[in-house]
Model the fold of this input.
Amino acid sequence: MAKLDRNKLMYFATLDGTTWEVLGRDNDDLSKELNPDTETSKNVLGEATFKHNGYEPEVSVDPYYADEESALYTKLSKAAIEEKYGDSDIKGKFVEVIFDTVNAEAGTMSGTGKQREAYIVPQSTGGDTSGLGIPFTVNPIGPMTTVTVVYTIQTRAVTITATT
Done:
């Protein structure tokens, strides 16, 4: 069995609910950390117990360089500079998908993904001389819905539609 290429798993985010951006353009490592809430203990009989209370997932996008053509840039930079933290400032949507179909002729990948609401929280501003950095963390919350995702490799355009 062959291992999957890393670019088969992609993350997308939006702060306006309509214009999606693929995450990871400036990153050579990007992961969703699950942060499981688990507890292991022993009782007086020496028996081990394990308790799993769920996950608190997050994706840390660092670096993220400010780009005026970015779908996230306007709201992200405003939230960072003005230190905004209300839902209307930092709450958006997040999609995670492992693409199962590649159409090399059309230059597209498609697959079924999971969408949920997410807080997209800037962590700092500034950075080194590589560019103006506004690294952020995506904190997915709430129930997942199933979506169909079609990604055009050349243009980074994405179409996300609800699955009925």
